[in-house]
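Example record

One chain of 272 residues, shown exactly as stored in the release files.
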Amino acid sequence: MSSQKVLVFAIFAIALGFAEAKSTKKTSAWYTEGTPNFQYDCSDKEDGNYPHPTLCTHYVACVAKTHAYEMVCALSHDGKPLHYVASSGPNPETSTCDYPEVAGCEGPEPTTAAPEVPKTTTAAPEVPPPTEAPPADECQDHDCRQVGNCTSFEVCQNGQWKERQCGEDLFWNSEIDNGFGGACDYYNNLSDNLKTKYIQDKECIPPCEWWQLDEERCTGTYHFRSPFDNQTLQGRESTLTCSTKPAGSSVEDLIWNPATLTCDRKSGVTGC
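Predicted structure tokens for this chain:
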């Protein structure tokens, strides 16, 4: 083969390869390489390819006037994306992608930002500092108001409210009409409403209870608070100990079981 024929064949092969790079791929089902369920109205369009509504490097394949596939143009030999040639469709056999300057796709209309309006700054008017309010806990000596609950109350001394405690086993009776909002009193002298309020307040009258301290776990030591007897508020708590094994016996000492609230063998207490 002469050198001229070789040169002509090489030029033809290059031209053929370039043409393949610029065109879309053709298969019997040309749309199968696209992304299905693309949001595009194909209802009035015959089967084929159409310009993408927003991207020059893409196009849309319509099938059966119902299905839309988003297709992507190939890359050129220099690795840059080609653009779809709108006038080449819709026939899949003729539709093609080409260099941007050839395809002439301008894409979606660019949005023009509104010109920035210079802001005028206006100095804020000077606001006089607020008048300092007196502290909320200030008062006048011998102020009369109801300030008491459970076993405590407040009195005004030297311009400040001071908390005071009722005597042992006494409760604040806010229903005493003495011009001071109440007085400390015996529990049995309280109204049923106040009794119910205080007995249901665990911070006022802690209920009967059994418990152990953390360091007492798996021992026979435990604590008990006796029920409120309507008189004694203080001194209801006591420290107790489970029974030890009988003298000369091989059995083990009993320990407190917090799950059953009684003394038990060690084997019956979880975690011991």
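Notes: Residues 209-268 form one domain.
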